[in-house]
Amino acid sequence: MKVGSGRPQLSASLAAAAALALAAAGVHAGLAPQYHLAHAVPLPGDGGWDDLTFEQGGHRLFIAHGTEVLVVDTDSLTLAGAVADTPGVHGIALAPDLGRGYVSAGRANSIVVFDLKTLARLKEIKTTGENPDAILYDAATQRVFAFNGRGRNATAIDARSDAVIGTITLDAKPEFAVSDGKGHVYVNLEDKNSIAAIDPRKLVVTAVWSLGSCEEPSGLALDVAGRRLFAGCGNKVMAIVDAASGRMLGTAPIGEGVDGTRYDPVAHLAFASCGEGVLTAVTLPPAGAPEVAQSLTTQRGARTMALDERSHRIFLVTANFGPPPPATSERPHPRPAILPGTFRLLVVAPADASR
User: Where are the beta strands (DSSP E) in 99-247?
Assistant: First the structure.
């Protein structure tokens, strides 16, 4: 794969083509557009992976992979660099107003701070709980929140000084989290089948809402304008929740092994990426129950994703798998082995889009 270090401008023709494709597919007529698997791009490395983060308004995709973060230029679909030395990396948060990025390094119980322009590693911040997993930047408070899986809490960091300013006790295993940028942060509580609402200024939990029949929620997305949360659940459903009251608005069927959920505010669709190799698009009509707009076959293992809200492309990663290693007392259910040289990026695009 070609490796590039430059930063070409985001293609205006690409954004225009995507908008035309969505319109042609019926978005503005209230219909659901159809998507297809447009590209499969080889990537280096043979380790495991976790979350993906897209630089909204830009053209870079950040991929948590093994002990580093791969950075892909999504205009050219080439490797643009990497953030090194992030052991057990889970997630990436971007603070464009401060020119910094933050990586949760689960095995090191720390947050790695890097320069958003050069990708240079700047410093390491120890978390107040073990195994930081989900991480987000709240622009309204200029604070970073790292959600610690084994610590069952969240570490709050002042992104202007990179100082730890507090710990939020959750008494649950946090999974993915989202912010509305208006004073509200939400996080899935995987082992409590619920969502916690957090005040990012006061650093307190303001409410915990049950997700009803949803089991082991992982991915979480937010419709900021409509104030709706979309939680991907381990029992093959997506739960839709009113972000103001916590009221359940319904569920929709998705695939097995969900780990990523995203919302496209233009297409008005929530997406769930599932490890069995299915990407499910869900729509919620103004009146009525949630509906599956499309169930797209991707590839086995493509369980996490990112969304470019401008081009409306969806990015996933996966690899080929061999048999799992023998079970041990420490790992009674080991994951299948990743076959060397098969790690790749998948690009899903609206039908008729040029890229």
Answer: 100-105, 110-115, 121-126, 132-138, 143-148, 153-158, 163-169, 174-179, 185-189, 194-199, 204-210, 220-223, 228-233, 237-242
